Amino acid sequence: MSEQGFENKEQFADLSGQIMTFSCNDEVYAFDIKDITDIMEVPEITPVPKLPEFLLGVMNLRGQVVPVMDFNLRMGKPRQEYDMKTCVIVTERDKANIGIIVNRVIDVELVTAKDIIPYPQKNSVIRGIIERNGVRESLIDWYALVEIERNN
Amino acid sequence: MAKFDAGMESMLDTFVFETSSLLEELDDILMRTENDELLPDDIAEIFRVMHTIKGSAAMMGLQNMSKLAHSVEDLFYIIREDNSVAYDKPAMYELLFAASDDLKNEIDVIQDDSIEELTDFTELMEKIHAFAAVMKGEDAKAEDSSGGFDLAAVFPDDEPEEVVTAKVTFDAECMMPCIRGLILVKGLGDIAEVCGTFPPDLNDDSSGDLILKNGLFIKFVTDDNNAVIENLKNGLNVQNAEIVTKPSGGGAAAAASDIPDGVFSDDEPEEMSTARVRFDEECMMPSIRAMILTRGLGDIAEVCGTFPPDLDADDSGDKILKDGLFIKFVTDDSNAVIESLKNGLNVMSAELVTKPDKSAAAAPAKTEQKPASAPAKPAPAKPAASKPAPKKPAGGDKTSSIISVKLEKLDKLLDLVAEIVITESTVISNPDLKNVTTNLDRFQKSSRELKKLTDELQDVVMSIRMVPVSTAFSKMTRVVRDMNKTLGKGVSLVFEGEETEVDKSIVDILNDPLMHIVRNAVDHGIELPDERAKAGKTETPTVTLSAGYDSGEVVIACRDNGAGMDREKLLAKGRKNGILTKPESEYTDREAFGLIMAAGFSTNETVTEYSGRGVGMDVVRKNIESVGGKLYVDSKLGEGSTFTIKIPLSLSIIDVMGIDVAGYNFSVPKNSIVELFRATDDMFVEDGRLIMRRGMCLPVYRMSKIFEVKGENKPLTDGVMLLCDDGGKKAVFFADRLIADQQVVVKPFSTLLSRYKLKEQGLSGCSVLGDGSITMILDMKEILESLEEADNNERTRL
Prior knowledge:
CATH superfamily of chain A: CheA-289, Domain 4
Strand order of the largest sheet of chain A: 8-1-2-11-10-9
Mean pLDDT of chain B: 75
Strand content of chain B: 15-25%
Strand content of chain A: over 45%
CATH architecture of the largest domain in chain B: 2-Layer Sandwich
Oligomer: heterodimer
CATH superfamily of the largest domain in chain B: Histidine kinase-like ATPase, C-terminal domain
Low-confidence stretches of chain B: 138-148, 249-257, 358-399
Number of domains of chain B: 6
Number of helices of chain A: 3
Structural class of chain B: alpha+beta
CATH class of the largest domain in chain B: Alpha Beta
CATH architecture of chain A: Beta Barrel
Largest sheet of chain A: 6 strands, mixed
Helix content of chain B: 40-55%
Strand order of the largest sheet of chain B: 18-22-23-21-20-19
Largest interface: A-B, 22 and 25 residues
CATH topology of the largest domain in chain B: Heat Shock Protein 90
Distance between the termini of chain A: 29 Å
Mean pLDDT of chain A: 84
Shape of chain B: elongated
CATH class of chain A: Mainly Beta
Low-confidence stretches of chain A: 1-5
């Protein structure tokens, strides 16, 4: 256990210690909270041609043009109707913004590296799994999600 | 720890800017003269550049830069003074280039907060000193040991007789001689009254060297000279201590006539007045102060000359400190001049002086000291004194009409103007106006006026930011030169259209990509001389950099007449690296050559100093794409390759037509639209695949098909036709509806979307409109080109 914990520390050293959980298709996922800049209602989205289906288009975020992704479609799940609880989580890394549409935002939780079980598959959208109180949360790898290479 | 003087931070930007431009100037001169004759003008120029860098670096407290510049300055001092001196030119240029590079690097270092230490240039400086020593030959050494030091300087003219001067010399190994000096002086407190020392300021860093070299002079008044000397001799590290007396010579001459020779010439007109300005002893760079003073007089007096005549000369500073600065001028109001002079920085006193009586000037002291030189001396001063100096004020005016502004401020201004233009169009075409029943004639008239003004404002702001692309090109001369040195390919670099003006931000962006591309061209593109001979190529290996405009874009191309690239080899390598995305036969030439821009792709088997690691081109491409540009590669095996960079002319506002295509909001740049019209059935040929218009038969495309957006297939007569022409290709496009005629600020798509190659598919960017909605801007040239290619492949025709 201690050995694994040490390993985790290296692997999840970049985490801020807080995660924000959200649900999509009855599963719970989580973002590192420091990647999140805004949570907002679904705005008007301008479709952009020639993009994969899960990229819905772009939105106007205070004068900035930000791409928007549907999380369900990104995970290969069926599209779900947007309702009152549907919202856009705006994330930012390396000065690049992207809005991610999720069914509902749940909570902000504390997490330490040793709580996280690393995900076995490389290049997966999911970095690791946190299991507690009978709930399983999947921690998202932002770079894998937006399909760009890590800068470091 | 700060690398430079605290309190100088505000000056950092200016220092960086000025020093960088000076170093560029230096490089230009060096490049030009390397294989040419080094003219006296160039020598003076290099000397001036190094002198200025030395001064400003010293001001910033950057001792290392200052000293390095000083050593180069010394070198050129020798050349300037003795034009016939023999030296090894290539070796010297190596040193000069190395110095220039080091200084440039150091500028980066001082700006980089993560680097705490200043670079140590001692090694290079020693090389330069050694080189200078060889140039100076034997006599140089003698001068080094003592000749450079004038004992007379130790003795001021007005020194009272009872003051005794002791000279203390220290061991060569003595650490911190300044401190030792201070301790010695303090130790004398009981037995003598110390009036001063030479060097005067023992806290100054440079004093240490002076003391080691020339010894420390202590001036004191005492009853018992011997006791003092004994005391001094007992000091730590002291080698010797002795009493010295004022040398009889120049000192006496100076004492006899307070005003040095040459200040007044015989044929001086009567209306000319002379002012003497004395500076504080601590005044740094008195010659600069002097120049500022003389320039400042421009308004109230006509300055005819100064003494010392050449304020740029190195020794003028000392002369000014010693005798004061003499300014000759013609004015109506001498008092105003004196007042103005007195207000100058570091100025201790300013007064009018008159020509001394001729017989008095030829003082007895002078006649007995140096009778021969008395008549000769005023001669060199004559031209300076009588020379009316309109040249200097003129130069002053020229510099004052140019100011340097921080780019950020211009960016801010441009952003604001862009916003104003957008807001203006939202106001003028506000939908609310449609509901107004009153006559809007006056409103329309004023809004046209406003539009005219904002257009002009926009043009002016854009033109402020325009700089010739040659600023980016000229840096490449240096790159090619260095590579020629190491690779021995003898490549010549040719510029075409380097006067093309582009936005400053584009030039900045271009620097790195150009450097990579040019390096690649010289290293990979151009063959080695014997390979060229084998291939029967007789022309000089040439890399051509060209610049020009093409429909709203800046086109920068780098062309070489080297080996070119082998399509098959590239594809094979691509296969090996597993980066091919489709069958090899489907790759167009351009796509195949484009492979070299993929990450981790290098066909060069051996890694050289300049290229071959395969990390270059993909970074280059990314850099260019990040500002909405494109990079193309064309090549012909055996004939050479061309790398073409296309970047939008300005990164800001363009005129567009908004169109609606099945609910998508697109904008077509107006400069690619020839006309808009509604089609009638009789115009069509071949079931609506072609259309007759303006005596041409043109293909018709549905925008919705091009972008594969779903929508009902409206009849072609039921929408709007856009006749577009870009890059010489014409076609007619069908859109559902025209939305607006507007101006937009182009924003490139998020980098997160770059993998979907929207740009290659004709979407150059997007823009936020006045109502907050987003429109996508089309690149008609790209669309026309890809349609033509598709037509050639007999596909997707309507």
